Amino acid sequence: MIELVVFDMAGTTIDEDNVVYKTVRAAVNAAGYEFTQDQVQAHGAGKEKSQAIRDVLKLDGQQHSEEEVQQIFADFKQRLGTAYQELDVREQPQAAQVFADLRERGIKSVLNTGYDRPTAEMLIKKLGWEVGTHIDALVTASDVSNNRPHPDMILKAIEVTGVSSADAVAKIGDSQIDIEEGKNAGCGMTFGITTGAQTAEQLLQAEPTAVLDGLSELLHAIESATVAP
Known about the structure:
InterPro entries: HAD-like_hydrolase_sf, HAD-like_sf, HAD_2, HAD_sf, PGP-like_dom2, PhnX-like. This protein is an alpha/beta fold. It has 2 domains: 4-16 and 90-227, 3-Layer(aba) Sandwich (Rossmann fold), CATH 3.40.50; 19-86. 46% of the residues lie in helices and 14% in strands. Strands 5-4-1-6-7-8 form a 6-stranded parallel beta sheet, sandwiched between helices. It has a two-stranded antiparallel sheet with strand order 2-3. Helix 8 (176-185) links the parallel strand 6 and strand 7 (189-193). The two termini are 14 Å apart.
């Protein structure tokens, strides 16, 4: 039985008009590159953002110094901060309702994200979400030693919520790396969702329990997977 759902943020529970990956591309290309938006999303989606930059840069087949990566990352953070101050952030359709429906069934909700904590907290504040009211916890990339696809954030979520085991956890996210993270943590279920960075075809390559077209499908998907032979 599922006791906890771990939700990705951008593209899964939060609609921020894909500003993160648009900003990654802007910062990388400002350093003299010409990567497409599709390339950035295919190779950077779901990752801690300095790692996303490293992986996008690798696409040109050249060696890139850590100093260059950090310079681009610093530019990215400045650009993103400006973008988020101006952006009208919205929840993905029915996100808060899904949290409430899960709570009614005794299932906890945790947000996890490749953002650092200050950025993540700014986003949930903009939405009016509160830990303890709408969600049970927030775990960010800056709270753990290893980021996705390592399982550290999910293991932290299990620790802070007191869930019995990873088998009782479902992970949902809009990128392959979210699904890989869930599998590496030993989650009982993993779900892809097509509201963010990657398509159903891309998500299916990571072999999730199911791919959903919206959060409203989550409860039914959990129940269906639970009763499946």
